[in-house]
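WARN  no MSA supplied for this record, continuing single-sequence
INFO  ligand: guanosine-5'-monophosphate
INFO  echoing inputs
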Amino acid sequence: MAPRAGRVLITEEALRARVAELGRAIARDYAAQGPILVGVLQGAFVFMADLIRAIPIDLTTDFIGVSSYAGGTTSSGEVRLVSDLSMSIEGRQVLIVEDIVDTGFTLAYLKRNLEARHPARVRVCVLVDKVESRQVALELDYVGFTLPNVYVVGYGLDHDGLFRNLPYIAELDGG
Ligand code: 5GP
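INFO  complex generated
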């Protein structure tokens, strides 16, 4: 049977409400200096698009592309930069916007990589934290939802390139 989206774990309404809350918290914390939001491609682009519209302060956006799963549903622990930022982040307030944290390898790598470019500070906003699967210690500044160790799709999250367009987050069946 081809993999398909199964049980809905986070509804469209819950996503909308939580993204609005995150936006308000981020706007409050960055009132003094507008941040650069760095979206992690590809999975975070839907979350990023909604999140920036919930942050009513000056901000700029950029994207970075990394690859870690190479088509499977488990992390290899090996992270590769596949496309870089388009601007310097030196002296800037940087907020990494990530769809989901599983083992933590991807975000640990990204934080290290961006901190080496001498920003004022790097913080992290993740939509979903699969806290049970963590293999490296990681400080997360903003977390949308916590889920158990299941593979999920929708709202930007894919399986083999599919399901990113679902407006909710669902468990993948038969993956
Ligand atoms: P980590 O390096 O923390 O193990 O994995 C992070 C990356 O793996 C995320 O950016 C995401 O692309 C992918 N990932 C982890 N868990 C899931 C999941 O449940 N569903 C999907 N679609 N991608 C996931």
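Residues 40, 43, 68-69, 75, 98-106, 151-153, 157-159 surround guanosine-5'-monophosphate (CB under 6 Å).
INFO  checksum written, moving to next record
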